[in-house]
Specification:
243 residues, mainly alpha, two-stranded antiparallel ribbon, 44% helix
Length: 243
């Protein structure tokens, strides 16, 4: 529980009101005095902790009638919602075998804690898509979703492979080769001969220049006799200072 703040509100009693004072004095017997009583109402406000008071980015708080989801994730609202079930299936399959620390899970099953910074599937998908689209630092990204940098790093390392497996399952993963892109598009793209750039033409027309330093091949081993320093004569000479 956070610190307690007291705020006081003062209510004036009838003794403070001038009109009521005149009426009451008229009814009071002679010699009587009118007492003034003040009522103070105390309101107790429980201050939220820093974690609860910190604004966090959540999918439920994003307006769906604007382009805010598209600006944050590069996906429309319909595309985002269509990707959530497959993403959550891949996440549950991954987290059933591995922990957030990257260790193989032994016996304890994964359960979403009430204090989890990413409690909903939409929040987890939003977390990784915003990271890929906006490219923030991990410290800033963790602050954006209400977690420390170390915790944000763990979630990034978990959700990036989950998103990759999701896109591969749906057949929407980006192609890494031109041949795979041709097969997906179902079109035959002729191989175009690339024309050399003007810089390459100038480089090919320039005659080769001798290098600044002469490159020499490694020489053979020397044929001079080598003195073995572990001989007794050499050791004795070095001790006598004659060597």
């Amino acid at each position: 529980m956070g610190p307690v703040t007291f705020t006081a509100e003062r209510h004036n009693s009838p003794g403070r009101h001038p009109l009521l004072n005149a009426r009451l004095r008229a009814r009071l017997p002679s010699g009587a005095r009118l007492l003034t009583i003040e009522f103070i109402t105390i309101w107790v406000i429980l201050c939220l902790s820093q974690q609860e008071a910190q604004p966090m980015l959540r999918y439920r708080d994003l307006p769906t009638q604007t382009t805010e989801v598209l600006d944050l994730t590069s996906l429309t609202v319909d595309e985002f919602r269509a990707l959530v079930p497959a993403f959550e299936t891949a996440f549950l399959g991954y987290i059933a075998e591995w922990t957030l620390h990257g260790r193989r899970r032994q016996s304890r099953r994964y359960t979403t804690d009430k204090n989890c910074p990413l409690p909903a599937p939409e929040d987890r998908l939003l977390f990784v898509l915003v990271y890929l689209k906006q490219n923030p630092t991990q410290l800033l990204h963790g602050r954006l979703f209400g977690m420390r940098q170390s915790k944000a790093t763990q979630w990034i390392h978990v959700l990036l492979p989950v998103l990759r497996n999701t896109l591969r399952t749906l057949g929407d993963a980006p192609c890494r080769r031109v041949e795979a892109l041709r097969e997906r598009l179902g079109v035959e793209v002729p191989h175009l001969a690339l024309e050399p750039s003007p810089a390459e033409e100038v480089r090919s027309a320039t005659p080769p220049v001798a290098p600044l330093f002469v490159m020499m091949a490694p020489s053979d081993l020397s044929r001079a006799p080598m003195t073995r320093l572990n001989r007794k004569s050499v050791i004795a000479a070095s001790k006598n200072g004659t060597c």
